[in-house]
Amino acid sequence: MGRSAAGRVGRTELSQTVHILDDPMPEYGEHESAGDPLQTLRHSAAHLLAAAVTELYPGAAYGIGPAVQDGFYYDFDFGKPISESDLPAIESRMRRLAQADIPFVHEVLPRATAIEEFRKRGQDYKLELIADKVEGDEVSVYRTGEFLDLCRGPHVRSTKDIKAFKLLRVAGAYWRGDEKKPQLTRIYGTAWPTQRELDDYLKFLEEAELRDHKKLGKDLKLFTVDDRVGPGLPLWLPDGATVRRELERFIVDEELARGYLHVRTPDVARLDLYRQSGHAQLYSEFMYPPMTFEDGEELELRPVNCPHHIVIYQTELRSYRDLPMRIAEIGNNWRYERSGTLAGLNRVRAFALNDAHIFCTPGQLMDEVKGAIELALYFSKVLGIDEFWYRLSVRDDVKEKWLGAEEQWEEAQAALADALESMGQTYERGLGEAAFYGPKIDFQVRDAHRREFTNSTVQVDFQLPQRFELEYVAEDGSRQRPVMVHRGAAGSMERLFSYLIERYAGAFPAWLHPTQVVVIPITDAQHEYAGKVAASLRASRLRVEVDDRPEKMQRKIREAHARKVPYMAIVGQREAEAQHVNIRDRANREVDHSLEAFVSMVAAEVAERRR
RNA sequence: GCCGCCGUAGCUCAAUUGGCAGAGCAGCUGUUUUGUAAACAGCAGGUUACGGGUUCGAUUCCUGUCGGCGGCUCCA
Questions:
Q1: Using CA atoms, how far apart are residues A332 and A314, in angstroms rounded to an integer?
Q2: Which end of chain A has fewer CB within 10 Å, C or N?
Q3: Is the distance from CB of A394 to CB of A431 less than 8 angstroms?
């Protein structure tokens, strides 16, 4: 399974370089080789797109056009932006060029010649790339008929090798990923070796729509978002709240068993607390304006939980014997995300983080980091997060973005890397992805559309202990500074829920499902027995409904099925007489059980949190 | 915040080139008591997101705002 993310190239050290150089290998690191035929095909399709565009829009300037997960894109400056309705014409021009069997010709030009070629064509973006990114006197270019591009290659032999492709959408994209630079028009497309694979991919996109958590959240009545409350402020409906409650119970119980201390702290604090933590200075763009009162009081909705937990740490003088101290809370965080970034439950303005802050001695750091990773692994296993990978998020060299001394960052980054390596885990590096106070290990997952998100995270922090002057008394009686580990083992409840909805397409495992059993009496005559069945299930703390509406059994089955209820217990006269239930599950298997056996079967499944 | 697209009943969608806003499902009221994925009939449901404009006439054209989707930037 490849590990790169669609449209997210240019975010790691390796791809940063190749991205700018228009390399056909925008993957994250080692997983794919530069000669990978699919990448080559897609990169060539990007050239074909640019060739078609420059024919149809003679004044258009082209930026960069790499292959990405599942396809390719190319960025253009059209003068005035085009829209999706322009894509069919571009696509048919691409097909015409493909049929014309135009070879991809590699040339190495002297720098001056290359500059002259691109100047002649009015391609200022390419001139900028040559000036900034190409060293030495040789410039590698590819020619496709009239179209010339700065490019290292490789490419397919001829345009006719590009057989199965489709343009998908247009989007704005800042030149070289900088929002202060001009915004270009990006055209996304997909390309595959065969029509069959293209069709499969388009089918996949359709199926992803059906799994989308926003659609299922509405259909299954899990959550809603309403203008009157506000964008990015989801409301958990009763069934969604039930799933969340089960998740929280599971998470909290497991953490308690692992030595975490669960606390409760308020959603606001004095603004000074965030001045001390540094958030007011370095994180203010995400913080709500403070609530200010006549007497000068300034209260701030908290963007993070750490300062509150630090205050709890400081309620007593701590001894080395108290450490490690693991303070946990599913705490609400408030972050004013820019309107354009909000997305279903994945990006919201108020969310509940499965958070904890571990205060430990430097000597305990490694074990605590490993413990946090192990906990995240355990949660992943139980919850069914089968596909994820690690990103070691480190700082870049933009000094203003980070707090603290170089050596501490090095130490923290080494600690995280060592922890992963000692556990035999491989990881990719995310340059500039660190938190402002320290590096982190992010657990990356994909949604139904294969978009990448951070779910859990483990972060090492030397800065906040310093800023808050944290201490513990060491064995020798001296005062020492603890290290902090921030970790969100199961991520935020919102993002986790969104992931699970898509992971299971709404068919949650029985332990999580809002309704574990629907009892369906065939006629009114079985209502009493149906009530007894429900009572037996409830006595084992199972969530059960009796569908005693005056509807046909077939309709009740259909509706329970649409709700993806794990078990339907159908009871007619035969079942009532035998004290049995006829069970139909989500796979439409039918089996007869005694009531007693069925109750213990489901109770066991739920207790074990079986998938 | 930026670029593109979109916004019609609770949901899914119709409504010729601008000419009386419709259907299915859901809801409500009746009838139906049923053996494994939709019983039947009736009723009700709308300031076409909101505001301005063009027009004899706007769901349709223009424009502003709000919201959603896909990207960019940013991120749990």
A1: 21
A2: N
A3: yes
Mean pLDDT across chain A: 90
Alpha-carbon torsion A272, A273, A276, A282, what sign?
negative
Question: Residues A247-261: what's their mean pLDDT?
Answer: 98
Same domain, A498 and A525: no
Contact indicator for A242, A261 with CB cutoff of 8 Å? no
Least confident of A310-314, A433-437, A492-496, A543-547: A433-437
Sign of CA dihedral A272, A276, A279, A284: positive
By residue range, what is the domain housing residue A369?
A: 244-504
Nucleotides of B under 7 A from a protein CB: 1-5, 11-12, 31-39, 66-76
- Which token pair is A415? 């600690």
Beta-carbon contacts of A69 under 8 Å, excluding residues fewer than 6 positions away, are A2, A4, A5, A6, A7, A450
Residues A552 and A411 in one domain: no
Provide the CA A235 to C1' B52 distance, Å, integer: 33
A526 CB inside 7 Å of strand B: no
**Residues 114-173/A with CB < 7 A to strand B:** 169-173
Instruction: State, as a whole number of angstroms, the distance between the CA of A520 and the C1' of B46.
Output: 37
Cα(A514)–Cα(A48) distance, integer angstroms: 50
The pLDDT tens digits for A9-55 are 222 222 222 222 222 222 223 334 456 889 999 999 999 999 999 99
Position A444 pLDDT exceeds 60: yes
